[in-house]
Automatic annotation (TrEMBL):
Its main location: nucleus. This is Protein atonal homolog 7. The keyword Transcription regulation applies. GO terms for molecular function: DNA-binding transcription factor activity, RNA polymerase II-specific; E-box binding; protein dimerization activity. GO terms for cellular component: nucleus. It comes from Gymnodraco acuticeps (Antarctic dragonfish). Residues 31-83 form the BHLH domain. The keyword Protein transport does not apply. Keywords: Developmental protein, Differentiation, Neurogenesis, Nucleus, Transcription, Transcription regulation. Residues 1-39 are annotated as: Disordered.
Length: 142
DNA sequence: TAGGCCATCTGGTCCT
DNA sequence: AGGACCAGATGGCCTA
C-alpha cells in the first residue's frame, strides 16, 4: 500500500477547541487526536484488506487492471447474483453434464459491467461478450 | 490539465 | 471517557 501523505497530525497539529493557556490540556488533546488518527488508519487498512480479498474472488478484467473499490462492489454484487442464479437455475438439473465454468460465464449479465468503465481492447470486448445471460426477475439497482 | 481514485485528517455521532 | 464508525475536506498520484 502506498503512503500518500506524511501525517500532519502525527506531528501534532490539533485544532482549535484547545485552550492555548493550558499546555496540559493541549497535550492530552493532541495525544487523543493522534491516537484516533492511528485507529482510523488501522481501520481503513482493515477495510482495504477486505477489498483486496474481495478482488481476489470476483472476476477480474486482467492482471494489469485492478478494480476500484466501487467497481469491486459492483462486480461482487453481480457475481453473487450470477452464482445465485446458477444454484436456482432448473437447467442445472436438466443438463448436469454442462461445465460449471461455462454456466458461470453464461450467467453474468453484461449491463452490470457496462457502467463501470470503457473497455476498448479486443480482449476486453471478448471477455465482456462472454457474459451473455439475461436475468429474469433480478434487477440491479445502481 | 482535468478528472478519477485514493489515503489521510478531522469532527460529529453512537455505543459500551 | 474512549473506541468505532462515518462523511466531508484536502491534497497527492496517475492517466487520457
Amino acid at each position: 500500500m502506498k503512503s500518500r501523505r506524511p501525517s500532519c497530525t502525527d506531528s501534532g497539529s490539533v485544532s482549535s477547541e484547545v485552550d492555548p493557556q493550558s499546555p496540559e490540556k493541549y497535550e492530552t488533546s493532541t495525544k487523543r487526536r493522534m491516537a484516533a488518527n492511528a485507529r482510523e488508519r488501522k481501520r481503513m487498512e482493515g477495510l482495504n484488506t477486505a477489498f483486496d480479498r474481495l478482488r481476489k474472488v470476483v472476476p477480474q478484467w486482467g492482471e494489469d487492471k485492478t478494480l476500484s473499490k466501487y467497481e469491486t462492489l459492483q462486480m461482487a454484487l453481480s457475481y453473487i447474483l450470477a452464482l445465485n442464479r446458477i444454484l436456482t437455475d432448473p437447467r442445472r438439473h436438466n443438463a448436469p453434464q454442462r461445465q460449471w465454468r461455462d454456466l458461470q460465464l453464461d450467467c453474468v449479465q453484461p449491463e452490470n459491467y457496462a457502467c463501470l468503465r470503457r473497455y476498448d481492447s479486443p480482449a476486453e470486448q471478448d471477455y465482456i461478450s462472454s457474459f451473455s445471460y439475461q436475468f429474469d426477475g433480478h434487477q440491479l439497482h445502481a
